[in-house]
């Protein structure tokens, strides 16, 4: 496994001058993914915020890419991987050549609109890496709630706060018994990149990454606070960094002591209407989920 400095010193695949919003973590995330996977890669890009820098002519990404609707990004990974197998069998591509096929799509695309496509690729264990860019709402279409929007969060379609709890998509994907599932955060780049390189160096099969990606525009916090918000999500237990490697779960970063969830919530305008009871309910849920996750991690 390469260290962080070695990976970040690689030549740039993601060009500067992209069209992402100020404070959006997507630029950093795209750089880390492409540097870790390298130039011998093919991208399937779903209709998500991260399609903005890659979809503008000629492109901000120096690798072959396909731009596709919200639902079928995982299906494109399946098709590209199958085509590579055929080309290798016909001798058009060297048998030992490693081509990294990966997809990026949003939380609404992954957990709602494209859930069937994602589940199908995982069930078939098609060779590729899927990244869910989770900014916890349909940000690119107007900040509407998705199945992965947290409970009590404001969106333009939940003006009084979302009633339902956030869908636990990483656990749903782990239940498909695929080789690798990982949760990552833009606030912890070394953990993020080391997991990508681990998945890259595994054998064939479907790997799933869930990226917690704070959105200044939709979450209503200052654009200078993106990394602070990302780290507080982990330090309070609102977001957990873990991996499921061939069925074995391991927490990859454990805060010495969980901070009160209010430290995280109070920085975001989307939670400004919470009652004391709402905060207590979120805090109780965090502790229950954390205790359960601890039991899944071997000593």
Explain what the structure shows.
The chain has an 8-stranded mixed β-sheet, with helices on both faces. Helix 2 runs parallel beside helix 8 (189-200). The radius of gyration is 19 Å and the shape is globular. The longest helix is centred in the C-terminal third of the chain and has 21 residues, at 276-296. It is 38% helix and 15% strand. It contains 12 helices and 8 strands.
Break the fold down into its secondary structure elements and pairings.
Elements: H1 4-8, H2 26-37, E1 41-45, H3 51-55, E2 65-67, H4 73-89, E3 100-106, H5 107-113, H6 115-124, E4 128-134, H7 169-174, E5 180-185, H8 189-200, E6 206-212, H9 216-219, H10 226-235, E7 241-245, E8 248-253, H11 262-265, H12 276-296
Parallel strand pairs: 1-2, 1-3, 3-4, 4-6, 5-6
Antiparallel strand pairs: 5-7, 7-8
Helix pairs in contact: 2-8, 4-6
């Amino acid at each position: 496994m390469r260290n962080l400095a070695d990976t970040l010193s690689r030549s740039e695949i993601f060009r500067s001058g992209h069209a992402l919003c100020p404070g959006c973590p997507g630029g950093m995330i795209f750089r880390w993914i492409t540097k870790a996977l390298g130039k011998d890669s093919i991208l399937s890009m779903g209709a998500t915020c991260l399609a903005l820098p890659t979809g503008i002519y000629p492109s901000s990404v120096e690798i072959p890419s396909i731009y596709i609707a919200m639902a079928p990004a995982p299906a494109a990974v399946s098709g590209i991987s199958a085509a590579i197998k055929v080309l290798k069998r016909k001798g058009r591509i060297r048998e030992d050549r490693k081509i990294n096929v990966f997809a990026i799509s949003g939380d609404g695309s992954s957990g709602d609109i494209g859930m069937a496509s994602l589940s199908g690729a995982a069930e078939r264990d098609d060779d590729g890496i899927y990244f869910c860019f989770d900014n916890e709402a349909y940000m690119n279409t107007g900040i509407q709630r998705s199945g992965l929007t947290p409970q009590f969060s404001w969106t333009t379609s939940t003006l009084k706060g979302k009633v339902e709890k956030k869908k636990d998509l990483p656990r749903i994907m782990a239940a498909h018994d695929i080789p690798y599932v990982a949760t990552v955060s833009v606030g912890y780049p070394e953990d993020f990149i080391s997991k990508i390189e681990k998945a890259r160096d595994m054998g064939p099969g479907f790997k799933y990454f869930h990226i917690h990606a704070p959105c200044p525009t939709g979450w209503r916090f200052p654009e200078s606070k993106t990394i602070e918000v990302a780290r507080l999500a982990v330090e309070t237990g609102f977001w957990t960094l873990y991996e499921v490697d061939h069925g074995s779960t391991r927490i990859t970063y454990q805060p010495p002591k969980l901070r009160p969830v209010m430290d995280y919530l109070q920085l975001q305008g989307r939670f400004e209407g919470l009652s004391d009871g709402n905060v207590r309910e979120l805090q109780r849920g965090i502790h229950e989920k954390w205790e359960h996750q601890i039991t899944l991690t071997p000593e």
